[in-house]
Design brief:
The structure is a homodimer. Chain A is α/β, with parallel strands linked by helices. Chain A has ten helices and nine strands. Chains A, B: Modulates transcription in response to changes in cellular NADH/NAD(+) redox state.
Chain lengths: 215, 215
């Protein structure tokens, strides 16, 4: 792919994973075509917004029967670079790290888990879900030798940002962070923070409305 | 709290957890006041948008020194009903469920974990992080006896939506779902889906731009 997509506004790019999910569900259900009206309903946006997005971003061959589901999925896959293999390590081989190593979506997005790293020396050498655990001391040479570009930060502890900063110096440019302490890098190193706390707060809000309605 | 907040548009409510996180960070750093300009920078929105949100939603006592951080946090806590204790169960006592049972934000949002439930009979009776594992057969009576209102779906398997539907009939109205298969309920039962796949796709996109820039 070319680098042309970088100029798209972030709020438009942010919609693509949701389009992908809904379209993929429709594909699994055997749908070949979908109308802008149906897709708008799934996305919770207006049909004209869907058409606008598709004219700007995606497959715009609407031919009466609707948009071709597979063709759009193919385009999103390319836009988001999901097919490119990204050698990935998981830092933290505890419960969270272990459960993530089983997570199918990693592979679907091109993230291939090559190794665990953990500060607990008792775990060194263990093999979990077919993936070996290495000692943190070896992380720099491993990253360079295995061409690791992505790291999943599954550490519950403080010190996560220091570890991330250290390994970014060896060439890791993509981080998926589960630690509730968030941090940023200078440009060219990218973090996605998983905000489970946001989900919890929204759930609390929704449930509060429900409880109030009952009164 | 009264039920008046339900009429706020969802996109405004969705901002509150982010305000909460940034303001809480500032509070931890010892800040008592923050200006709309500073907060706008953290949130990635315009200062006038911050002032507009605060006039509509939140503490609007801006007095030259800025907004009172603690006062706003207090208001968001009330708006989102975070202080109300919500008796909660985790369904699935595997790696994901276990790691979630340690997650501090649950308690901070009022979700108190009372029990695990698991289909694996070998786990029945075990105590994990101080929380007992029960057999799925007992779930209905447990929910009613212990006044459970929320459930965390930490099942990797299919069948999650059937389990959720079943236990909603016993009175659970709030679900946090980690299963990549998403589903909806009729009104008055609320689901928050944790979309780790969205984070992965965005990370792939960002990294792709980086790799292209290098070419």
């Amino acid at each position: 792919m070319s680098g042309q997509y970088r100029d798209y506004p972030k709020h438009l790019i942010r919609k693509l994973p949701r389009y992908y999910r809904y379209l993929n569900e429709q594909k699994q259900l055997g749908r070949e075509y979908i109308s802008s009206n149906e897709l708008a309903l799934l996305m919770g946006i207006s049909p004209s917004q869907v058409r606008q997005d598709f004219n700007r971003f995606l497959y715009n061959g609407y031919h009466g029967v609707g948009y071709n589901v597979s063709a759009i999925l193919e385009q999103i896959t390319e836009l988001l670079d999901l097919k490119t293999k990204k050698n990935t390590i998981i830092i933290g081989a505890g419960n969270l790290g272990q459960s993530l190593s089983n997570y199918d979506e990693l592979k679907n997005c091109g993230f291939e888990i090559k190794a665990f790293f953990d500060i607990n020396p008792k775990l060194t050498g263990a093999v979990i879900n077919g993936i070996k655990v290495f000692d943190m001391d070896k992380i720099g040479e491993y990253i360079e030798a295995e061409n690791i570009v992505a790291a999943i930060l599954a550490l519950p502890t403080e010190g996560t940002s220091e570890i991330a900063r250290k390994i970014s110096e060896y060439g890791v440019t993509m981080f998926l962070n589960f630690n509730p302490v968030f941090f940023e890098f200078e440009r060219d190193v990218f973090i996605e923070n998983v905000h489970i706390d946001d989900n919890l707060m929204m759930l609390s809000y929704k449930g509060a409305g429900e409880r109030n309605d009952e009164k």
